[in-house]
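Example pasted here:
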Amino acid sequence: MKPTLAFFLDYYNESMYPTLKILEEKRLKALGTLKKTVIVLFCSITLLSFILIHNAYLSPLHTSLILGIAGLIIFAVIYHYVKVGYTSLFKDHVIGKIIHFIDPSLIYTKTGSIDEHEYQHSELFLEPYDRFFGQDLVSGSIDSVNVRFCDLHVEKKVHDKDDKEVWQDIFQGLFFRADFNKTFHSKVVVLPDIAEHSFGILGSWMQGMNRQRGELIKLDHVEFEKLFVVYGSDQIESRYILSHALMEKIVQFRTKIDKPLYLSFVDSSMFLALHYTKPLFEPILLRSLLDFDSIKDYFERLSMIIGIVNEFKLNEKLWSKH
């Protein structure tokens, strides 16, 4: 039976609410700690500012800068400490339970991740990276299709205009892999069409020059072509994999989620990357756990992810060997 929102509301009230009341007390305690920290820091900085400026040890500007930065660092350290403890409990009692409700056979590991080999094997992002971090790994079988997905953040180190080292995102969001029962031999990569959308014919020419990706594949689905650019190692099999029905489902999914979507088909696996600007399953300290709407957001997000198998009908034998 499909886990509908109505059934989830019953589950929330009967199975989650008693535990969430205890967790809510911890959330309020964490907020209280942060409020006390702000008050203590404010009073301490005010007193130190008065002493330093009154005795002419530092100018008002230098005093404000030094104490302001010190205060922010102290608050950030305490915030991190408080948030880490609460987040761990939240994932056990909220994310883990929602996944169990949607599909008890799935295994959730809050500290687990897609490994770097899988990420590289997808060929979705070819840029070299310096930092690779994943969490909230879910693995198992959905309708006989093996899946693995997690929240992933991949960054590289670059220099800004002042030659300072800064971290730049290569990808942040959902990274999803599903295996197929049948094999195909070529590689197909589907990327958001940014160049052609921005530069028209010139963009299309630039896409054709991207030899690192393989051959540019042009398809006969107008809406799909507007949203994506496709590269493959075999023109015929690329069109075979990206059937009209699958392209239609990808367009519908992309329209529904309204976020940058990346797909690849490599060695009988489908990889999907969905860009988010923030972690997918982190708690929000300012939102009450006893407000169903805040929990509902996580349920709908996880249902959408787990529903990808049915959304693209990966459990049906759409593809067969040549």
